[in-house]
Amino acid sequence: MRVVVDFDLCESNAVCMGIAPEVFEVRDDDFLYILNETPPEDLRPKIEEAVRRCPKQAISIED
Amino acid sequence: MFGTVAIVGGSLSGLTCAQTLRDEGFDGSLFVIDAEDSTAYDRPPLSKQVLAGEWDAERAHLPGTTADLGITWMLGHPAIGVDLADRFLKLGNGEMVGFDGLVIASGAAPRVLPGMGELDGVRVLRTLDDCLAIRSALDGGATRVVIVGAGFIGAEVASTCRQRGCEVVVLEALDVPLERAIGAEMGMLIADIHREHGVDVRLGTGVDGFEHGGDRHVTGVRLSDGSAVPADLVVVGIGVVPQTAWLEGSGLTVDDGVVVDEQLRAAPGVVAIGDIARWPSRRYGRLLRVEHWENAIQMGEHAARSLLREDDGGEGAEPYDPIPWFWSDQYDFKLQLAGHAGADDQFEIVCGSTEERRFVGLYGRAGRLVGVLGMNRPRHVMQLRQKLVDGASYDEAVAFGRAL
């Protein structure tokens, strides 16, 4: 599983960080950083939730 | 398992519910009924990117709606009635749709002012068509824009119109904008920011009616003090009312929305979600009806599972009780509120400052943290949102926030 963020769409709402802080981090510069682009499978449900709840639909999963 | 589920309302909540039903293995027939011809779009960009002309309408379409969910779309005619005993819906064109499970997601409609329906150039903003009509008026040379209502929709439209170079007047009947949503101090801050951007914000100003020329195109807004403000275009953003008229006589409990239980059930095999649903929140100890984007998604997901679980005879599910969250983008700031703020709550800024337009403030009630408001501080809003989840005391949350 590979986590992909479209940074042209991302508005740093930080919803993803609230759901999966292991993978997503919005830092003090207000930009989103992906901490682990290929997270372990057990994080899939959280990442799928982040995909669904991103207000900009900027996150996707590539298998 | 249910053979047929009908979803009334094909917007964000209804479509999320459809997607979740399929994800959870529902393989029966799925009908989506909506009064609009095209429903599968996202609303937040309608007051921002699409209205600004930065995005074309296509870009507002919800992803996933093109996915093959096996939906039978019945668009262009509203549901006008429902018979829960015999399990069928009546549509505006006389068609009947039978169902086993029913999802009520018919949303809310904007409040209007008397007389506006007969005039050109006076609009509400709710649908994609509304947005495109306003955008086309702006493209067509409307430069004097009057916005009635300083709520979030009005404020976002004001921001977008200023960025398009229009002269903007905002009329708000109350003395403080957004007080019920974010309290007086923050409401006045938003008003100040609009003024800094050149918006003529008039608080405590009621609207008496509209002025128009012989072509019935609006030329101005008459105020309750007898004066008038010239206008080429008026956008009315004075809130929404749940679309429950079609449920009269259905036997469902309708009281400022469809009243549901903790599993979002309005009746056996019937759920209500999104702007129309009013649920008993354990967290807040009262019925809540929330018009936020995220709530529409979460309710759609929860209701799909609750419908399928009921069908299986299963029990023991978690109640629906999320922490409300929304955002609003205006000018160069992003405002986010997690939780629930009230006009009477304690409020303290714990990091940053209003001068920097970058801060987080906390709302407290009876010693508990009840809300987190951030301006251009998404990271800290999300960190403090966890304190809401944890049910932190106000003092503890303030200490945590100051240390961020």
Q: What does it look like?
A:
The complex is a heterodimer of chains A (63) and B (404). Chain A is of the alpha+beta class and 63 residues long. Chain A has one domain: Alpha-Beta Plaits, CATH 3.30.70.20. Chain A contains two helices and four strands, in the order βαββαβ. Chain A has helices at residues 15-19, 44-53, and strands spanning 2-5, 24-26, 32-34, 59-62. Chain A has a two-stranded antiparallel sheet with strand order 1-4. Chain A starts with a strand and ends with a strand. The mean pLDDT of chain A is 93. By secondary structure, chain B is α/β, with parallel strands linked by helices. Chain B has three domains: 4-43 and 52-109 and 240-312, FAD/NAD(P)-binding domain; 112-236, FAD/NAD(P)-binding domain (3-Layer(bba) Sandwich); 332-402, FAD/NAD-linked reductase, C-terminal dimerisation domain (Enolase-like, domain 1), CATH 3.30.390.30. Chain B contains eight helices and 27 strands. Chain B has helices at residues 12-23, 49-52, 128-139, 152-163, 179-196, 293-312, 378-389, 394-402; strands at 4-8, 29-34, 71-75, 79-83, 88-91, 96-98, 101-104, 108-110, 122-124, 144-148, 167-171, 200-202, 207-212, 218-223, 228-230, 233-236, 240-242, 258-259, 265-267, 270-272, 277-281, 286-288, 325-330, 333-339, 346-353, 358-365, 368-375. In chain B, strands 3-2-1-7-20-19 form a six-stranded mixed sheet, with helices on one face. A five-stranded parallel sheet of chain B has the order 9-16-10-11-12. In chain B, a hairpin with a 4-residue loop joins β21 and β22 (286-288). In chain B, α1 runs parallel beside α6 (293-312). The longest helix of chain B has 20 residues, at 293-312. The chains are: A alpha+beta (63), B alpha/beta (404).
